[in-house]
Structure formats: C-alpha cells, structure tokens
C-alpha cells in the first residue's frame, strides 16, 4: 500500500506482541488486493495464556 510505513508498522506489531507471538510478513496470502496481510503465530507462552 503506497504511503504506508510498513517497516514501522511491523516494528510496532513486533514490539506489542513479543514474546507472546511471532509476526512474520509474507508476500501474499491470496487477499493482498484487499489489504495488507500479516501472519501472527502465538508462542508456546502465548498459547498457554490464551
């Protein structure tokens, strides 16, 4: 998405979610034409916490 600081968004998400989850940017998950897509994978600690 033009005009969006993707690196800053990613850094902010990682700061909020660490150590509860891992944020992995990907090229496309078949919905890229609609919005930015990210994958958030809970850590073992995050899963235990619910």
User: What is the average of the pLDDT values?
Assistant: 80
What is the helix content?
25-40%
Q: What is the distance, rounded to the nearest whole angstrom, between the alpha carbons of the first and last residues? A: 32 Å
Kindly state the number of beta strands.
2
Cα gyration radius (Å): 12 Å
Instruction: Note the beta-strand portion.
Output: 15-25%
* Helix-strand makeup class: alpha+beta
Helices and strands, in order, run as HEEH
- What are the segments in which pLDDT stays under 50 over at least 5 consecutive residues? none
Q: Using the alpha-carbon principal axes, give the shape.
A: flat
Largest beta sheet: what is the strand line-up? 1-2
Q: What's the domain count? A: 1
Number of helices: 2
Multimeric status of the protein: single chain
Largest sheet report? 2 strands, antiparallel
Task: Describe this protein's structure.
- This protein has 50 residues and is an alpha+beta fold.
- The protein has one domain (6-49).
- The chain has helices spanning 6-17, 44-49; strands spanning 21-25, 38-42.
- The protein has a two-stranded antiparallel sheet.
